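dumping this here so i dont lose it again. seq + smiles for zinc ion
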Amino acid sequence: MNSQHFPLRGGCHCGNLKLIFNSTQTPNRLAVRTCACSFCRKHGTRSTSDPNGDLQIQIINPEKVIRYRFGMHTADFLICGCCGVYVAALMQNETQQSFATINVNVLDCAQLVSQDSVTVDYDGETIQSRQERRLQAWTPVVSIEEQNSQS
Ligand SMILES: [Zn+2]
């Protein structure tokens, strides 16, 4: 059934940043990419996204979340400021809808994602082509909950 979704949970090491990735694919069928940019190479990132799925993000302490930007500054790379794990990258369209690419390594099911990843190199893109590609391929973010506890 096309409408079936698989809730894949994950997050950073310390639990400050949590994800629920509702994918239309089982873990062993996710499209996995290895990006050739220097950030992803340094992290050993494997990325996935599902334009027909959705993503929920839960943040315990927003002050301990780093939103790192580099290169063309077209996306926020969410990194936990407590444990240092890169979880996902976010961008917004004109209507402030967020879209995400997810670091497969932070999913609880990461070991089931054993298929070969496709190496991608986006170095030659313009800002516009980059944004258009991401809006097609990345996962719509349906909620970002911040539990602003003790600040
Ligand atoms: Zn953490």
